[in-house]
Automatic annotation (TrEMBL):
<comment type="similarity">
    <text>Belongs to the 4-hydroxybenzoyl-CoA thioesterase family.</text>
</comment>
<protein>
    <recommendedName>
        <fullName>Thioesterase domain-containing protein</fullName>
    </recommendedName>
</protein>
<keyword id="KW-0378">Hydrolase</keyword>
<dbReference type="InterPro" id="IPR050563">
    <property type="entry name" value="4-hydroxybenzoyl-CoA_TE"/>
</dbReference>
<dbReference type="InterPro" id="IPR029069">
    <property type="entry name" value="HotDog_dom_sf"/>
</dbReference>
<dbReference type="Pfam" id="PF13279">
    <property type="entry name" value="4HBT_2"/>
</dbReference>
Length: 159
C-alpha cells in the first residue's frame, strides 16, 4: 500500500475500521495447504465493499446509473486463516476523489488478535452507458455513504 508500510498495516486493529462484516469460511475456501486460498481473499474484499455500497450508498448493481470499475488491488498477507474460522472483514476509505475511492480492508479472525491480511482496492465510478467517469464525479448518495468510512487518522465507531 502506497501510504503505509507493511509494519504499520500489521498493527491494524478492528477499531481502525468503521464497518465490519462477518464471513463464515467454507471447506471449499481452503487450498491444498490447509488455509484459505489467496484468490478467496480478493473475493471477500470485493464482497465487503459491494455489501457496503449496496447497504449504505444506494448502489443497485443491475440498474444503478453509476457503478464501480476496479482500477487497482493489492494485498499484504500476515497470517493464515482457514475453515472453519469466522472472518471479520473490516472496511475503511483511505482516499475519496471526484470519481474514485481507495478502500482498505482488514481481515481478522473472530475471537483472535492480530490482523490476518490487509487489502487495498481502488474503484472508479463510471457511467453505465459510456463506462467513463461523469464530469461531475460520483453522485451525492455514493459520496455521502463513502464519506462515513473516510479515515484521516485513527479509528472510528462501527456502523
Amino acid at each position: 500500500m502506497s501510504t503505509s508500510t507493511s509494519q504499520q498495516l500489521r498493527q491494524r486493529s478492528r477499531e481502525d475500521y468503521p464497518y465490519l462484516l462477518e464471513y463464515r469460511t467454507r471447506w471449499a475456501d481452503n487450498d491444498m495447504y490447509d488455509h484459505m486460498n489467496n484468490s478467496v481473499y480478493n473475493f471477500l474484499f470485493d464482497s465487503v465493499i459491494n455489501t457496503y455500497l449496496m447497504e449504505h450508498c444506494g448502489l443497485k448493481p443491475p440498474t444503478s446509473a453509476q457503478h464501480p470499475l476496479m482500477a487497482h488491488t493489492h494485498c499484504d498477507y500476515f497470517s493464515a486463516i482457514s475453515f472453519p474460522s469466522v472472518a471479520e472483514l473490516c472496511l475503511r476509505v483511505n482516499k475519496l476523489g471526484k470519481s474514485s475511492v481507495t478502500y482498505e480492508v482488514g481481515l481478522f479472525e473472530k475471537s483472535a488478535d492480530g490482523v490476518k491480511a490487509v487489502g487495498e482496492f481502488v474503484h472508479v465510478f463510471v457511467d453505465r452507458s459510456t463506462l467513463r467517469p461523469n464530469a461531475s464525479g460520483m453522485n451525492d448518495e455514493l459520496r455521502h455513504g463513502l464519506q462515513k468510512l473516510l479515515v484521516a487518522t485513527g479509528g472510528s465507531s462501527k456502523l
